[in-house]
Amino acid sequence: MLEKIAVLSIVFGLILAVDRADWKRSGRRERAVYLATLGFAAYLGLDYAMEAKLPHLDELVDWLFTPPASRIVDALKTHG
Question: What's the whole-model pTM score?
């Protein structure tokens, strides 16, 4: 696990070092997208390194949309 975290730290450090010049010239929206992408990559990297079973995007979509979808299907069954 420590080797994976060390490699991830090196990779993210290199990414930040290379993108430093572009960061200074970028606008607000570009920085927001960059940070969101980097944050998502860090989340997945830590999930891999720790071998944790952290929630992924498909579980979030299921959690958000399953109850409303079930209610819509039930409503269509009662009125159909």
Answer: 0.62
Cα of 7 vs its chain's centroid, Å? 19
User: Is residue 4 packed enough to be buried (19+ CB in 10 Å), middle (13-18) or exposed (0-12)?
Assistant: middle
pLDDT, residue 56, reads 78
- Sequence-distant (6+) residues with CB within 8 A of 54 are 43, 46, 47
Please list, residue by residue across 26-40, b when 16 or more beta carbons sit within 10 angstroms of its beta carbon and e when fewer do: eeeeeeeeeeeeeee
Amino acid, res. 61: V
Average pLDDT, stretch 37-64?
86
